[in-house]
Write a structure and sequence with these properties.
This protein is mainly beta. It has five helices and 23 strands. This is Arrestin-like N-terminal domain-containing protein.
């Protein structure tokens, strides 16, 4: 008598050599590669077509819209290998009416089976998608926002340069599984066909939440001081102070064209407090670079990573990838110093800095010099930037590195620099989102929402 295990192995080998059903996922308005992106409350419509070469028994057909993240973190030298995490944070299932299935329970050749689907990009994830330990009440609201497609290859190998490291990605797919009963298997049903098609999603991020996250962070120094010295004995000639407030967010195009719809600008304030009657330094240039920080971990983040200090050197589950993008360089040639007296109190710009950002500006008694420069912040168009976001396993943030170069006339020809780091938010512009009529119309969708 043949044992059940031998019978099951023989059946599996037979199934492996049998041609599988051909599944085609057609998405309306899409062609090969990464075409039209989707944003919050957009509808995704299409049809799944199934064809077979021979009569095929099946039990169920599952069509779903899923979002998942994958992270791998290299282990230390002492423990080689990788730590890998896979998190399915979104799963919407398309109900299929029983009458749509063949009554015989078999897929027949020379006949094409078509199943329409419709999904709506939700505004938020279910709270159950973020059930890990958290250090702050603001963690779950930010982690349950939809993250953007990130570091993911599309159909045909299409790839957009979003500066994501190879060790992490966020993908959205239309997934189709054909299930059948599995004799002798611990699972009553198992998929014998599992195919998917990737889609690009650019969701709207709650800007107010991001603002609160940045306010809680302490990694960004928006005020820097440096003694101005020269000569062999490094004589101290005074103190140079640079301050700046985080600029308004840059609004990215929700159509994902790689361009941005709204630039921003930043004002850099400078003060020089001389020792005695020293003249202020000669300002040369302001160089601006965008620092792109991608935090990823194989275990969920308990807090928001906001800077290099967020990575614990002894934590083997976390990693950080940093890339810098040069933006622009501006000359101070037309910018002169204005002599001030501390008896008059701080200037209006410094009062605003003190009031709004609590920078704690302290003025040295006596005369001092002030100046400021306002410069535009424009992103290069050859990079497909994604919005600032925080998720359970992956976060993307941006900083502006403002480097001021200067020298002391008649004292030294050597150039010195002072660098200030300021956070900046990248957001997605979608004016239609708050159109009440369209919003209410799109909130209904005949879907089953599954808890991942």
């Amino acid at each position: 008598m043949v044992s059940n295990s031998i019978f099951c192995r023989g059946l599996s080998r037979l199934e492996y050599n049998t041609p599988r059903p051909r599944v085609t996922i057609h998405v309306d308005g899409q062609g090969p590669g990464l075409n039209k992106p989707y944003t919050t409350l957009d509808q995704i419509e299409g049809t799944v077509s199934i064809d077979v070469n021979h009569t095929t028994k099946f039990h169920d057909i599952d069509i779903s819209f899923e979002g998942y993240s994958k992270v791998s973190v290299e282990r230390t030298v002492q423990v080689p290998g990788q730590r890998v995490a896979h998190h399915t944070f979104l799963r919407l299932r398309q109900p299929i009416e029983p009458d749509a299935y063949p009554k015989s329970g078999f897929l027949e050749p020379k006949r094409s089976y078509r199943f329409p689907f419709i999904f709506v990009i939700p505004e938020r994830l279910l709270p159950q998608s973020c059930d890990h330990e958290q250090s702050d009440v603001i963690i779950r609201p930010t982690h349950t926002q939809l993250p953007p497609t990130f570091g993911s290859h599309g159909p045909g190998g299409s790839y957009l340069n979003d500066m994501a490291p190879d060790t992490c990605q966020i993908s959205y797919v239309i997934r189709v599984r054909i299930l059948k009963e599995s004799p002798g298997d611990s699972r009553p049903l198992r998929p014998f066909v599992d195919v998917s098609r990737k889609l690009r999603v650019i969701p709207i991020i709650n800007r107010e939440l991001l603002r609160k996250v940045n306010e809680k962070g302490r990694q960004h120094s928006m005020r820097r001081e440096k003694p101005v010295k020269c000569g062999l004995i490094k004589q101290n000639l005074g103190q140079l102070v640079v301050t700046a407030c985080p600029p308004e967010p840059i609004l990215l195009d929700h159509l994902g064209s790689g361009t941005h719809t709204t630039d921003t600008a930043i004002t850099v304030h400078l003060q020089f407090h001389p020792k005695g009657d020293e003249q202020p330094p000669q300002l040369k240039t302001l160089q601006i670079k965008l620092s792109v920080l991608t935090f990823h971990a194989s275990t969920p983040w308990k807090s928001h990573p906001l800077g290099v200090d967020s990575i614990d050197p002894g934590e083997i589950h976390q990693d950080l990838a940093i890339k810098e993008v040069p933006l622009s360089s501006y000359s101070f040639a037309s910018t002169g110093w204005t002599k001030q007296s501390s008896s008059k109190g701080p200037t209006r710009s410094l009062r605003l800095l003190t009031k709004e950002r609590r920078l704690g500006e302290s003025l040295i008694q006596g005369n001092y010099y002030t100046t400021s420069i306002t410069v535009p912040i424009t992103l290069p168009k050859n990079i497909h930037f994604v919005s600032t976001f925080h998720s359970c396993f992956i976060s993307r943030i941006y900083n502006l590195n403002l480097c001021v170069s200067y020298y002391m006339p008649k004292k030294s020809i050597l150039k010195s620099t002072l660098t200030l780091k300021v956070p900046i938010t990248l957001d997605v512009a979608a004016p239609f989102l708050w159109d009440g009529s369209k919003r209410n119309e799109k909130l209904f969708t005949p879907l089953t929402l599954l808890i991942p």
